[in-house]
Amino acid sequence: MHEEIMIAGFGGQGVLSMGLLLAYAGMFENKHVSWIPSYGPEMRGGTANCLVAVADEAISSPLFSEPTTLMVLNRPSLEKFERDLMPGGLLIMNSSLIDMEPKRRDIRIFKVPANTLARERLGSEKVGNMILLGAYLAFSDLVRENSVTQALVKVLPEHRHHLIPLNRQAIELGRELAGSGSRRVHRNAV
Question: Which of 11, 47, 70, 180 qualifies as a FRET site for 98, CA 20 to 30 Å off?
Fold first, then answer.
């Protein structure tokens, strides 16, 4: 198993945290991992993305140009990175902030209105990223959900640990929307 994941969005959407959670979860499961963050000079509102690789064997390079999965949280990220996704790869997109259809037809697509669901069902748009992460976990056997929730303790600063239960709820909601264990794609959630 060797997965290469790109996560992209605006700074402040939790893009880097999503990648770091996957990397820590992989480490907890004794897998080989790499995590490379990239962000513009603006911390909030600027661009942010990260590359995460998780594998059973040593990772030859932390850089890659064709991710197996692309998670995008905003329209500019879809426009910029959709072309990089490997043929047959999985695109998970936040349809709350992306008002266009992907152009490619050789990829699997799953749309989730993450911000809307986070606000309406969980009371905070700030966990929209965790809904997308939960959807990814439903489509992938990369890491176990409990490893990701365990990683929340490492990734969230201590003064934010009171938000761990809310983040867990968001991850579970994402899994449910993706149909836990289901491989349904090319559809909208909800």
Answer: 180
The residue behind tokens 């992460």 is 133
Cβ 19 vs Cβ 5: under 8 Å: yes
Residue type, 128: G
Confidence of residue 47 (pLDDT cuts 50, 70, 90): confident
Q: By the 8 A CB rule, do 46 and 10 touch?
A: yes
Task: Report d(CA 70, CA 55) in Å as an integer.
Answer: 17
If one counts the domains in the chain, the total is 1
- Per the DSSP assignment, residues forming a β-bridge with 48 are 9, 39
Q: What percent of the chain has pLDDT over 70?
A: 92
What is the radius of gyration, based on Cα positions, of the chain? 15
CATH of the domain at 47: 3.40.920.10
The residue segments making up the domain with residue 181 are 2-188
pLDDT band at 187 (very low <50, low <70, confident <90, very high): very low
User: Per DSSP, what are the bridge partners of residue 5?
Assistant: 52, 69
- For the chain, how long is the longest CA-to-CA vector? 44
